[in-house]
Amino acid sequence: MRDGKRSVVGQGLRAEVERGAIGSFAGRVGAFFAANQGGPRIVMGALPFDRSEPDYLFQPETFRTGDGRESEGQPISLPDAVRCAITPAPAPSAYRDAVAACLEMIAVSAGEAGPLTKVVLSRSLELSSTHDFDATGLLRALARDPSVTVFSTLLPAGADAARPLLVGATPELLVSKKGGEVVSHPLAGSARRYADPAADRDSAATLETSEKDRREHQAVVDAVFDALSPYCSELEAPEGTTLRSTASMWHLGTRIVGKLKDTETPVAELAGALHPTPAVCGLPRERAAGVIGQLEGYDRGFYAGAVGWADEKGDGEWYVSIRSARLAGRRATLYAGAGIVAGSDPVGETDETSAKFVALLSALGIDEHGRPLRERAA
């Protein structure tokens, strides 16, 4: 994992942590360190979106941290244009229909106790290439944007011929913990960025003043406060809600910082309390997750889960695994989602997912139809 300031790199696979659901995350990490005295005192890996599914955590052979500029002086450029077929899953028209159905569910629930107020619906692009995808080249291309945290982590071996990886560039911190300090930086409410400066400023201004997006964002912030408050003696958002930009998107973001009542509370327990936030699931969480399973039509796996690390002391960092791709040899799956609330527009939400695909597609050198960007520009 690397952002513009710091890198965290584990290499090799020394041992795997017993797999299980997120409810046992902290206990299994603690048990692993108690039973395994050798190697780096750190575990890394990924949590799936579905809280009931098993995670994948491992101890690397080696571990090091850096200043985030380790690749300076190395050639960082777009990988050679990938020639591949792309199959949307679901198709954009089916995704629009799912958003419309979701909006109807939200409207019908308005008069109920504990109404459904938000659901994050995603869609994917299935890529089939003429050659293996280059995870290292993809990471280097994604790392050109200093506003995101790039990551690559092993996933559990399955039926794929090649060992799958989860690779991405996330702008969203689920939770970090160092000693007695805890930080979360949720994002919700998004708008596309534009090459034209005037159009880009208008897009940011529209997002910043959007009642619908402000309402969506506040619901996420409230949920993070509710989850962390039992653990903290102090909890605040010192800068309030601000605009956060990546190379392709504007977001509303709120940085939340707190002081733990018990400094020995492990980051794994905090991540378990937070995941999945309404930024990737919805509200109420269990009901929104049920709607996602009903309407999306595919298994998210480790997309919209979390990636990160935890050490023996209980410190660590976990990032929401959005703007991510599952790579396995010549096959890849890219993911993007949008938060559906009252007032959402099916066409607009579909366009938002297309905008969120841009970072990964551009890093691969292709557009949403699989056409090489260099050829299109020519």
UniProtKB/TrEMBL annotation:
One GO-annotated biological process of the protein: salicylic acid biosynthetic process
Domain of life: Bacteria
Catalytic activity: chorismate = isochorismate
Pfam families with a match to the protein in the record: Chorismate_bind (PF00425)
Residue stretches making up the Chorismate-utilising enzyme C-terminal domain: 93-356
Enzymatic class: isomerase
Keywords: Isomerase
GO molecular function, one term: isochorismate synthase activity
EC number: 5.4.4.2
Family stated for the protein in its record: Belongs to the isochorismate synthase family.
Protein name: isochorismate synthase
Biological classification of the source: Bacteria, Pseudomonadati, Pseudomonadota, Alphaproteobacteria, Hyphomicrobiales
